[in-house]
UniProtKB/TrEMBL annotation:
Membrane topology of the entry: Peripheral membrane protein
Keyword Hydrolase: yes
Single GO term (MF): hydrolase activity
Family: Belongs to the THEM4/THEM5 thioesterase family.
Keywords assigned: Apoptosis, Cell membrane, Cell projection, Cytoplasm, Fatty acid metabolism, Hydrolase, Lipid metabolism, Membrane, Transit peptide
Claim: Plastid is one of the keywords in the record: no
The protein's name in its UniProt record: Acyl-coenzyme A thioesterase THEM4
Catalysis: reaction(s): decanoyl-CoA + H2O = decanoate + CoA + H(+); hexadecanoyl-CoA + H2O = hexadecanoate + CoA + H(+); (5Z,8Z,11Z,14Z)-eicosatetraenoyl-CoA + H2O = (5Z,8Z,11Z,14Z)-eicosatetraenoate + CoA + H(+); (9Z)-octadecenoyl-CoA + H2O = (9Z)-octadecenoate + CoA + H(+)
Pfam families for the chain: 4HBT
Thioesterase domain: residues covered: 56-138
Top EC class, one word: hydrolase
UniProt-listed Enzyme Commission number(s): 3.1.2.2
Amino acid sequence: MENQQPEYFQDFMPENVCFGCGIHNPHGLQIKSYWEGEEAVCKWVSEEKYHGWPNLLNGGILATLIDCHCMGSAMAHAYKLEGRPLDSMPEYRYATGTLNVRYLKPTPNDQTIELRARVSEVKNRKTVFYCEVFANGLKTAEADVVAIRVYDSSQPPAENAFK
């Protein structure tokens, strides 16, 4: 079997200019998330400009990685539940309801960062995630994240939070 590139959730988020996950933001973090079984995975390589202290990743950047990884994963999970491809309609968008990050150890800024998120609950427009962050196999942070569906292209504009 050939190695093929995963289907990245962010490639199916039109008009996305978000700093963390927007494919249309050339100055952003440009994260890429994909399914690995029931986990949403993101592998990201930092740059020196994102350090907090020398050789350590800035905590706000780490929170942004977790946040954006989970928002894209919420969209992909909704499509998965409906048994449809990421490029199908209706289009959904999610925004952060809550983000509770626990920083366990300093995260190196010179290693690949791996995020692994699992859905723990879905209720109406809300999807809850547990996300873990690893650097060189060591867990450096974990988070509970609530994603809220704020846009559904099949609904009238008054029903959506933004567009």
